[in-house]
Batch of 4 targets.
Target 1
Amino acid sequence: MSKVVGIDLGTTNSLVAYVQDGVPVVIRGTGGDALVPSVVSAAVDGTIYVGREAERRLLTEANRTVYSVKRFMGKGIEDVRDEARLFPFRVGGPAPTAGEDGPGAPESKTGVVRIGLGEREFTPPEISAFILRELKHRAEAFFTARGEVEPDVDRAVITVPAYFNDAQRTATRDAGRIAGLEVLRIINEPTAASLAYGLDKKHDGLIAVYDLGGGTFDISILRVEDGVFQVLSTNGDTHLGGDDIDLLLTTQVLEDLARRAPGPRSPEAIQAVRKAVIQAKVDLSERDETEIVVPLDSGAAGPGASVEPTPPMYRSRLTRAALEALIAPIVDRTLAPCRQALADAGLTPGHIGEVVLVGGSTRIPLVRRQVAGLFGRAPHTELNPDEVVALGAAVQADILMTGNRDVLLLDVTPLSLGIETMGGVTSKIILRNSTIPATGSEMFTTAVDSQTAVDIHVVQGERELVADSRSLARFKLRGIPPMPAGLPRVQVQFQIDANGILSVTATELRTGIGQAIDVKPSYGLTDEQVEQMLLDSFEHAEADVEARLLIEARNEAESVIAATEKAIRAPEFAEIARTELAEGEQKRIASVLAGLKMVLGSTDRETIQKWTHALNDATQHLAEVIMNRSVQGALAGKNVDDVT
Amino acid sequence: MSSPAPVRTVQICRSCGGGAPVDVHFCPQCTKILTLGRHGDYFSYLGVPRKLNLDIVELEQKFRSLSRHFHPDYFYNATPAERRASLERSSYLNDAYRTIRLPISRIGYLLELEGFGTTSPGSASKEVPPALLEEVFALNEELDAARDLRREGAPAEGWQERLQRARQPIEAKRDAHELQLQELSARWDALVDANAGDQERRAVLGALRERVLERNYINNLLAGIERELTT
């Protein structure tokens, strides 16, 4: 049987995990890395890069590289217009279509965001699908290497922030479908994390899961009893995370840079700053002080720059105290949702027995202190906060496939579901924090004689007015039997499934006729669009495989080049060359090395591989010599670095 | 499908065509999960008596146990009909549990079930319940006075204190209502235990309905004062 995996599709990084002999395990890449950066980049020749390679390209091809795409999932262009300016890639939307809807429905004229990737434009689910495909391939390569008979991965559980609305969940499911995955289930990240911790095995009680990731914040309160993980309430902010901290720091450094060296900055220079401040942020979780170091390209340094030895560097010290002062408002924004979630569950902090931290941003000491302060207890940090969500997703995938009834997840819908009524007021049908699956129903009738269709506007959110809520979709009920106004009784059933995704059915009660419903998602894709994208991706599948093989060939070539250059630059190389290498050997290594470097940039995979093998062959003797010397050095009680 | 089953006591299994009592969830013949066709009310579905003082621990246990039987997670590899049945039964279970878990919505549901119409907060009448006329009249006078003070630019402490004072009698009334609701709930349960006649039951339900509507009205008033205080 083909394999089933759990996927954490994160803002910053994504992971894939599976269950082996009852234990969830993260699947690592060939380099041992668990995280796949959620970055996608397009080369001029159309090749798509995902992960580390794409992340590297942020420093060289910033405007052909997309990151943090999760922030755009299920969004319309007017939601993201301000934010889009901060990204090096193009963010746009379809041109407004005039006269489509009546007044009071401006959002229906926009639709889903488009993101420029190289020369082409993609929707956020398509960009996410590139990342999912990368994870799928990683898992398949892993299963193939293990000699599995059927290494194919075609089904997955994918996680989303608990506070994701219907459009964001649907967009995630669409991404899975476009990537050729059957999405068994969408589950909430904090809930997945609690599964991974196996807290049911410890003891029954109340748990708070605090999940601060790259772009989103969630708090979930759960009751665990007899193996049932019942979410009592959830709250959060789908626009709050480590990204915001990075942005603050980046802005600060750019302002400082502008004072020291005025002049315009290239997108690549801004990305170099972003990379440096992220490193500094990470450092300060371990240390009290660090230095932000940014290499300056000569163009960016400008004429006013001080004269320094090459290469010019921007350097600036940053203390943990200064960082904490800067980010305190961001961390504070997580506390109100925590209090709201407690109140919705009818609890006070004292009731909470265990606190679990999830997401890379919870490594920040200030975050840990604030959480400990709020709940009055030290949080769990045993599991890697980057990996715990994917592990939980794998557990859930295993439950779905095996039907194992030891554990059961009962989640809730994070936002109230309602419909627009007279005067633009929201009438709530399913309240937030209702256990899912859940249903609700509402009766509709007609306003004029012989009316055969009724429009229904479905919204999500806690506000009274439709204008303040999130538009989900417009439904048109058609085929109502012609009757005098007010006589038809159309019962509309709203069903939220275990994924937290809405579906709608309708029946005219007098005739018992099921009503046809046209769905127009406000910020989503129609089924037809998703199907087309899936077909497109099949057409590109062959090209994708070729692109992947090319990337692998380049990676291998790069590692051989790096090893060779390291050997040549080593202080003892001169002596080795003089005493141990045959005549012409050094020269041959140098020429093959130069040749491989020359073909490295080409798209001809076979040539790259040929030269890589040639360099391997040419350096084989050298490698043996170095190995022998290092063994001898070790025997003589010396480190190889000391042997000169 | 052809057997002339007594109305409302039997449901039909879509898998084997057999009949099953209305409050069971799995077919006694073929053991498959039953499509949610004819079904009981929230109380009977959860297997608890139609009473207002429920053992909450027992209710939670029943909810968890039924969830373990129905949840869509366990029907992933089942037939489409079983998957749909699992979704329908789980949804109905969750709706049932949510509705009768808290005392006030439990009372509201019982009233609806017994034909006393809806008492949801949204349906609260705009007319002042007769039992509250005196308090509401006094409150409105205080509210007007406080609003005047505010409009004239009086210091916040002044009119805020008036508002706080104005809501005290209403809050006292609400506390009294809670006690009355508890007392009426106990009477209803006793009537159920005694298998009492329709007339006695309807009298208690009618009184419950009046208290609930008054309670809704009071809550709306208090929410209004809260809004004035915070905006």
Target 2
Amino acid sequence: MSAALLIARRELYAYLRSPLGASLVAAVLLIDGLWFQTQGMSGTKFSAEVLQEFFYGASGTTMIASIVLSMRLIAEERQTGTFTLVSTSPVRDSEIVFGKFLSAYAIIVLMTALTFYMPLLILVNGKVSWGHVAVGYLGILLLGAASTAIGLFASSLARSQIVAAVIGAALLGLFVLMWLVARAAEPPLSEFFAALAIHHENFRSFQQGILELRRVAYYVVVTYFFLLAATKTLEARRWR
Amino acid sequence: MIEIEELYKYYGERRVVGPLSARIEKGEIVGLLGLNGAGKTTTLRVLACDLLPTSGSVRIGGHDVVERPHEVRGKVGYLPDRPPLYDDMTVDEYLGYAARLKRVPKNDVAKRVAEVEEMTELGDVKRQLVGTLSHGYRQRLGIAQAIVHRPELVVLDEPIGGLDPLQIVEMRGLVRGLRGEHTVIVSSHILHEISETCDRIFVIQKGEILWSGREADLSSQVEQGMRIRVTVRMAGKDGAAALERATELATAVAGVRSVEAREATEPGDGIASIEVLAESDVRDALCRALVAGDAGVLEVARLRDLETTFRALLEGGAPS
């Protein structure tokens, strides 16, 4: 565990020293702000509707940011040769994966925390349910964890950051579009595909401020599955 | 210390290493010599536990690389052909990070980092960003990260690659300085480099050990003898007479196969140079014979054309 934290700290340091971390956070805040202003605050709406619009927009930027942040985590290090330092140190592959996940996720958490002024703005002209705010943010953070894990898995497959980003975006896109597949399928397959949809089916309840444990479990399982897949990919590479 | 038995490594269907068996004792400096693509880097990556063998066994310090990779990695320091350096960290920060990754106790990190910086002469640049270092310093830093946790085995893949002549000399000194505390394996495709630093050489070709032994044995076996140049001075004789007498004395030494005249390596009366081809190392007997024959020995040099020797070995297969 200490090795994972060590790796996470090093990666976080790299994000903060490079323009990537700051520019990505700035871009996400700008887009979230624009979305909040144009979609949430336009016209006459209930406070809960404004909040739902905000969480809807933030979920999209969180998914994109997760892929951008995670694409470099392993692929870049393999490209530059620095991955050898961790892969030949007495550190388990699971610790490498978890450490790298933690670093990208820390940026996602920071980025999400910086959007908190937007729900507060609703207080100026309306009322906010703090339960709705908390559940909505929980949803954003869970979606961010699952998307980061998918991006990290993609990064473990590729040697190039660009290829990693393409694989990550394709995988995440597949999970997003599961709701469309579900529409085209017949029951019980349609229910199965709908349950896999990372955004439409599973995020909607968080967006509405409804906490459902099975939705929480879904994101935890997706995150765990892709972190495990990334670990197994690293292990398999040693045998190739 | 290191036991390799019937090691094979395949990339898909392609055999890159194997069958390869070797035993390396604690404290030895061993050279892995081979042309590009001979399987050196793959062998070293298996020893560093970066890759796992397809079959066979590799034991380092009593631990098997497949069964106990975690323990093995703690005992090995590895410098790949491209040092794994983070350009955005300072030398101090990087070595501190490497030390922590390699399980150096937190309280000892600063002390150990200072020690390896002194050993590898990185003290002047310890607060400099890694990305701004010259190639020579980067190689030194690569070695520093490989030894920061006091590993039993240090694996260096082409450590002199891209260095200028001065840096090569410094690097040789650095590698030799590891003797004793560490067992060291160095790879290179240049025999001269390996012979300057290593106690023993493994010549590797197509993933197999073609030959192993001391560099002196390699030359004598492949060339089927040793070539020695001797320069003598004989008082009261002219050059031609000195040459004739020196040839006569050298030819009489047991083990000398042939003696040829060479242009004197220095000017002066009674000075002559000869080149002796002997079955083995007869330098001491040769000197005694010359001195006994009233010849003053000015120079004895063993002639080594190492790269020719290496090429002859690779082209001719393993010597008997």
Target 3
Amino acid sequence: MCPAADATVAEGALRVLVVDDHPIWRDGVARDLEAAGYVVCGTAGEGAQALRVAAATRPDVVLLDLNLPDMSGVEVARGLAALEPAPRVLVLSASGERQDVLDAMTAGATGYLLKSASMSELLEAVQRVAGGDAVFTPGLAGLVLGEYRRLAGGVEDVPRLTERETEILRLVAKGLTYPQIAERLVLSVRTVQNHVQSTLTKLQLHNKAQLVRYALEQGLD
Amino acid sequence: MNHSHYERPALGWALLGVMTVWTALTAVAYAQPVGRRWPLLVADVAVAVGMVLATLAVETAHRIDAGSPTLPAAWAAAPILACAVADGPRGGTLAALAVAAADVGERGSLTEHTFNGVVLLLFAGAVGGYVVRLGVRAERAIGTAARREAAVAERERLARDIHDSVLQVLALVSRRGAALGGEASELARLAGEQEVRLRSLVSTPAPVRDDKGSVDVRALLEPLASAAVTVSCPADSVPLPEHAAHEVAAAVAAALDNVRRHAGDGARAWVFLEDAEDTVVVSIRDDGLGMPTDRLDEAREAGRLGVIQSILGRVRDLGGQATVTSAPGEGTEVELRVPRC
């Protein structure tokens, strides 16, 4: 199913791949996305299938459920990040298992939403993730802050948050929207977004470096 | 070797041969579970006893009196250990008594030398049996524990899957129902409420005390989540001494209660738990009506803060601090800082 060939679809519409093992949910979301003018270039119910479809259809955004039958969400996120060009990954989770979410984000996903999010929140998140923004929930901000605190306890070279980044993440965790944060700190919304994104990028780079180091150590053994 | 001094060297050699064959036989028999039963054990002890007594026929009376070792020497300890392994301290001790009796019979009297040997044999039988029993029991316990752990892990995995499916359906009902409107939107609301409750249940670690008497604060705060209340926590546990953890949770619950009563209809609240090394920080923010700061001070001075006062009191008793900030139309934020001590 690739409605990209459909003549009614606007030129340059965002191409989305929906990955979820629940058929009702998958089809429902796909329908909603199409109704909103997005191109659903594929759906997948398993991780391996998702990676194949993503490589073949080159979506702009992958909506990724973390609970898949064959692979962990983290592995799929990592696999997607390794594609060339890599699609943006928006994680959708029903249970919000903290460690799973955090791992998927550090593996390369840039957005996270609970499945209870409303349709308009979901559509907005897809749009923002596609535009390169990081989409955070208060819960994710709490996880990311916690992860920096945890890393700070280690001895090795670890990423650190600037004072501003910490301040902004704390406000996100307290439920403030980017515009509200911008107003409170007298910054532009763009600047707030950039700060949030940089907190995630640093974690992802650190994670990648860790993986490379681990691979080298294993290889040199 | 002693054979050159034996009275009957040929018989000695023959018995040595018997011992060798018997050793080989028992080695094979004991290797199979069927072999490790009492007929073979009794036979083994009997052979050892026989060999000890056969010393009388092989050795000269003079050398026996002088304290020369028995024909099987340390070999006689083998069946004792076999009995100890098979039957524990009881079997080991009985076998040791049998061989010891043969030793004393062979010597004709309880010399100091024999006495030492008897004590050692009894030790080998009793202590060996005890240790073996202990080892077997420990191994069994480890096996049971490992099986139980695997079962729990499997059950948890299944539960995660099932919960995820149920959560998906609830989220779906809540979303579709809201879009349909009318009676369906009431169903949607109910599904949405249950979804939040189940999710907080699934993601909440058990509020158990660890070995230092601490409780994970997350376990006490997560259950406060609802359709109107979002709770954000780190991925790692945030331990506080049990009493302090419960006091913090009670303070947060009181703050949320205050939001429900005073922040106005449809107000939402966010609880945010942070672990800042030596301090645990919890903020409770709402997007409700809020109030001017001077009114807050006024109310505080007049002692009319009620719930807020009780929150401040609880936190101060823990050696912590609480701050309240509010502005009209911007909601209220309460921040609790509790030292780890």
Target 4
Amino acid sequence: MNREQVTPERVRSANFTPSRLGRRGLDEAEVHAFCEWVSDGLGRLLNDNASLQEEVLRLRERLLDGGKAKSGVQPEDAHVQAVYVLSKAQQTADRYVADAQEYSRELAEDAHLRRDEILREAKMRASMILDEAHTTASQAASATRTTDEPLSGGERQELQAEIAYLRTYSDVCRTHLRAYMESLTRSIEEWERAERNGTGPAKVPPLPSRNAAVMPVPAPQQA
Amino acid sequence: MDEQRLKESFARVAAYGDEVPLFFYSHLFLGHPELREMFPVSMVGQRDKLLNALGRIVSDVSNRDALVPFLQGLGRDHRKFGTVADHYPAVGASLLATLAHFNGTAWDEELARDWTEAYTVIAQVMTGAAADDETLNPPWWGATVVGHERRTMDVAVLRIAPDIPLRYVPGQSVAVQCEGRPRMWRFYSMANAPRLDATIDFHVRVVPGGVISSTLARGVTVGARLRLGAPVGTLQLNMASPRSVVLAAGSTGLAPLKAMVEQAAALPNPPRTHLVFGARTSAELYDLADLEKMAAQWPWLTVTPAVSHDRDFRGETGTVADVIGRRVPLAEHDAYICGSSAMVRATVEHLRSIGMPKERIYFEDFGWSES
């Protein structure tokens, strides 16, 4: 009950537990706490009262001073008041502009982060594709090197198949990479258009999915 | 006019900080609502400028050699805002009312007389300079965008054609305002030495949340109209120096330095020049192709790209300062630096720490920070 307002009703209706067996009267701790609460509350009220009294005196003096100089508000004062009102309005406008700028800065920074992430991912994917192509190609090369004997018809055929495979492979690589890059560029352009038109990034078309088949490797041709 | 009294009374007023210009502008607009149109919606930056200018005028009140050119510049510069001599009395009256208000009981007739006298002189110098300038230059230059190239996600290179040729020295910049963004001006450096066809290049980097930079980099297209203020800035190639030159460019801080390279190219004996062009990643070296073409054409020019946040980059990695420290024998060079505040500060500090004398370091702080 500590910070609650002291009211006549609360004081009048205060209830205390009777003392435990062997002692007379009311629970001592409860009574002490109650008195403490009443005295705190009274202290606050007295303080409030004093500051209100001061305020009343101050206002009364000002009123009398004003009355002495001239009746009512002076035109100079009125002008200063008007200046203050306009200043307040200006500060409100300043705050709105600052908020809007802050908001757009945050949006732009978010977009930058997202863009960096997309580019990083694309780069990673590209290097993965190249690595894989490289591995396959060097495997094929080492396979041909192991055969020192003149090529038989069958071997020649096999090798040509291998070359055809590699060509196909690199074609597929390139096509998919290009398609992926193009769709990325398109997404970024859409995104920018949306940004320019003032629609938020929420309405931006989805980016190519991370799991979209970027590079279906052709099944190795078994001779 | 008692200068000491003037300074003391201003110190009393300045203690109220932002409240002072806030009161001043409100007082001015109440009496002359038509003047409000000349200012942007948000007045935050404007208030800082006013307080700084007043502070500078008062502190230099006894130093006429510094004060007069400052006021003349201010007077000329105000032409682009549409300020005319008729506006000065209204401003003076509001200034006096503001000073009286914040001086409180300390304000008396003598102070009022001092300030009236001071403002009369200020207004005379400013309007005089503006009037002289009127015979030579328009209040602002209209210009058309004739080229717009987005070099990276954040950087665009604009080519503009002013209606009337704009005379400037490489290294200088102009305030730019674009259609649809009235009363907002941002400074951009000319990125080329003056051309016969008078076209000018600007390198614009998007500042997150920056209204003008985003508009110029992404919003405008060929045919868009701009307004340019008079050229300003003190970063200039010291032609009298016998030393070689090192140019340190951080991102679009390249613009004024590139203009200086073109200026040097027109000299009979261009100084040996080493341009270090820095960016965070290699993709952000937005003008490298052009710079390398220049270096191939001019034997006295060396261009070194420096990349700070890209481990895969095959060239020099690190900040511009790092690369200069590694590549340039500083004893024989003058250094010119332009870029973000952080880049300029770090580069100046680094050059000082490795023994370059202060008077050989020239720099321009673009005031933006890299995020």
